[in-house]
Design goal:
Elements (H helix, E strand, L loop, with lengths): L3 H29 L5 H13 L17 H16 L8 H8 L1 H8 L3 H10 L4 E2 L2 E2 H6 L1 H17 L9 H14 L3
Antiparallel strand pairs: 1-2
Helix pairs in contact: 1-2, 1-3, 1-8, 2-3, 3-4, 3-6
Length: 181
């Protein structure tokens, strides 16, 4: 029998997959906006840079669930940006992303903390040879990064998501196996 949280996930996750490109664009716009605090920029850049990692928690090519880790990371990074001084009330897209974290918490249960710690650690990682410091301090690097995010948003084609409980089981199994303990 499907739990209430799982039923919400089966209805919601396809929307998260469809909006992933737009979500990334909203985040890069906030990253580049005047007045975005430095700590919030770090959170946004880290979440966005994850989209370009060649080895992420769930390989993008896995049917149904391959981009859901990216969707989860963008939501958690948006919440971190809010906690780090970004006025989410002034940005409806990021406020919505951050608000979705409660469903991620409900879905992952005790494993949510491991994902949250992982997302915080992304501030110390790099993708495509770009560290978060490179993105935030190098005008040319940030321009290239912004261009890459916008290119991703334009070319992203949402995969299908079968509203079957087995997809939720697979998704939880990947997070359990791949998240550092």
């Amino acid at each position: 029998m499907t739990s209430e949280v799982d039923a919400r996930c089966l209805e919601t996750f396809p929307n998260w997959l469809r909006s992933l490109g737009n979500d990334a664009e909203a985040m890069v716009d906030a990253l580049n906006a005047d007045g975005t605090p430095e700590a919030a920029r770090r959170s946004l850049a880290a979440g966005l840079n994850y989209v370009f990692k060649s080895v992420d928690l769930i390989p993008d090519g896995i049917d149904d669930i391959g981009y859901l880790d990216d969707a989860f990371v963008l939501r958690i990074a948006s919440a971190h940006a809010g906690a780090n001084g970004l006025d989410l009330g002034a940005n409806a897209a990021l406020q919505s992303l951050a608000g979705d974290v409660d469903l991620v918490k409900g879905f992952l249960g005790d494993d949510y903390h491991r994902l949250d710690v992982y997302v915080q650690g992304l501030k110390r990682s790099a993708a495509r040879g770009r560290s978060i410091d490179d993105i935030l301090t190098g005008a040319g690097v940030r321009a290239d990064f912004t261009s890459d995010v916008k290119g991703f948003a334009r070319s992203y084609a949402a995969p299908s998501f079968g509203k079957e409980e087995k997809n939720l089981i697979k998704l939880r199994a990947f997070f359990d196996a791949k998240l550092p303990r």
